[in-house]
Amino acid sequence: MSTATLTSKGQITIPLPVRRKLGLDAGDRVEFVELAPGEFALKPATEDVRSLRGMIRRPVRAVSIGAMNAAIKRRGSGR
Fold first, then answer.
1. What is the pLDDT of residues 18-39, one digit of tens each?
2. What is the Cα–Cα distance from 63 to 68, expressed in whole angstroms?
3. Whole-angstrom Cα distance, residue 65 to residue 75?
4. Residue 69, helix vs strand vs coil
5. What is the DSSP letter of 71?
6. What's the CA gap between 3 and 46, in Å, rounded?
7. What DSSP state is assigned to residue 59?
8. By C-alpha distance, which of 55, 75, 73, 57 is closest to 65?
9. pLDDT at 79 over 60
């Protein structure tokens, strides 16, 4: 079992064996996933941006730049 010490700034160093098993390298991001109250799992945050494809449907008709600018202007003026 690997352990780490929390610094006064709230930082920890993830032990090398854990980093290797998770495939983590310098600059990688990690997620803390709550499994139960007081119990968390550490998970690499490696979601590819392409996985977001299809989340937002395409508009039925295209919107012109002029229409976009008019909507922004209306919204900015509070109308």
1. 999 999 999 888 999 999 999 9
2. 7
3. 15
4. helix
5. H
6. 23
7. P
8. 73
9. no
Domain residue ranges of the chain, discontinuous segments joined by +: 16-77
Q: Tell me the residue type at 58.
A: R
Rg (CA), the chain: 22
1 half-sphere exposure, CB direction, 13 A CA radius: 1
CA distances from 10 to 4, 7, 28, 32, 57 (A): 12, 5, 18, 14, 41
Identify the bridge partners of residue 39 per DSSP, sorted by sequence position.
Answer: 36
Whether 78 shows a pLDDT value over 70: the answer reads no
Residue 41 DSSP SS3: strand
CA distance 79 to 20: 56
Stretch (H or E) spanning 34 = strand 30-36
Q: What is the pTM of this model?
A: 0.54
Angle at alpha carbon of residue 10, lines to 7 and 11, rounded to 5°: 70
